[in-house]
Amino acid sequence: MGSGPSLLHREDIHVVIVGGGYAGIQLAKSLKNKARFTLIDPKEMLYHNVGAVRSCTEPGFVKKIMIPYAPTFGENFKQGTVTAINAAEKTVLLSSGETVKYSHLVLATGSTGHFPWSLPDGMTTAAAVVEKSEEVLKQVKAANKIVIIGGGAVGTEIAAEITTDYKDKEVTLIHNRKILVDGESSDAFQKRLKEILEMLGVKLVLGERVTNLAELPTNRVETATVMTDKGTEISADLVIPCTGLKVNSMAYKDSLAFSMEDNGSLKVNNFFEVQETEGIYAIGDCTNIPETKMTYRAGMHAELLAKNILAQETGGIKKEYKPDPFIMTLSLGRKAGMGQKGSSLLPEFMVRMLKSRDMMAWKVWRDMGQSAPS
Ligand SMILES: Cc1cc2nc3c(=O)[nH]c(=O)nc-3n(C[C@H](O)[C@H](O)[C@H](O)COP(=O)(O)OP(=O)(O)OC[C@H]3O[C@@H](n4cnc5c(N)ncnc54)[C@H](O)[C@@H]3O)c2cc1C
Questions:
Q1: What CATH homologous superfamily does 15-42+80-113+245-324 map to?
Q2: Which of 248, 327, 328, 368 to mutate to test the pocket of ligand 1 (most atoms within 8 A of CB)?
Q3: 140-243+326-364: CATH class
């Protein structure tokens, strides 16, 4: 934020940030030394879910994707779960019973899904994540026929991770659409992606919907038959679901139901202000902004909101958020990667260096101002 305006002298300003994911930590960093803030998250550490795919194949990698909040944010970090908001009193209620008063409330509660893509409620310590992650590593190692359900970015990346590290395993990726990863990607992206996956030995079943997911044993080695709506049957001994990320609305669903979309996201305007509220904002995955949800976009929301809060309180001019051109990078195992910016493909060596090498863990540790474990 450079040496711009500061609100540190203003006792009446207290920005409460609910959620320490990519949006929340960026906002906290942008407000550091500029305004009084408290970052609240149930976990003791940021979980860099971008790297979760590698934690399924590389022993010990999970430790590189958990960065403790305390060394970065000190007393500005409060471990806790927000369960309600009292907009009239301008307070949030924590599950411990404690209330925290705010002048500006920023909801950055993101989304939630299956482990290891996201952490279940109650899994709040690095030690608990390491233990559960070791179990996933064991299951992947023991399996021979793996079926991955869902060909979004996560399903595609995990298929490539497994075939890169285990040449002897049969890996099938089933996706209900013909297009993998993201509808915003170009034909050239799709063509090159399918070439790389084929080279790695991933079998693709596209345009078919799995019909028996609810009955399948998932994330543990057990014989099963995966069935699709086109009549395809695939035998598996490990089924990994990569579908169903949901907006995490636990903090506000009872208090702000009137400002929520059916999927749980919050209706915001171009200044991230939550509809029909005052002093309440939302950024990152929990907003209804019509764009593919991504870490860099969560970070952009946060940086702009920090500037706007500072501007608003110091007589400056607020700026509207305008979704930027599409950028996506995809790691396809340690040795391959590809990406797209606007409508052009990114140089593959660049994506390999930036992302595939260590899933950008280096960047998150650097952004948190800490050194990664070796
Ligand atoms: C496996 C996986 C891989 C991905 N890979 C990429 C990628 O390579 N590139 C990319 O751009 N995007 C990627 N994404 C998408 C990206 O992770 C999201 O867009 C990003 O996490 C959004 O950040 P966020 O801060 O909005 O939410 P999150 O990162 O989901 O963070 C939300 C935070 O809120 C906290 N929280 C929730 N409820 C409460 C509560 N009641 N009280 C207090 N705190 C609460 C949670 O503990 C969490 O820390 C990936 C997503 C997944 C799941």
A1: FAD/NAD(P)-binding domain (3.50.50.60)
A2: 248
A3: alpha beta
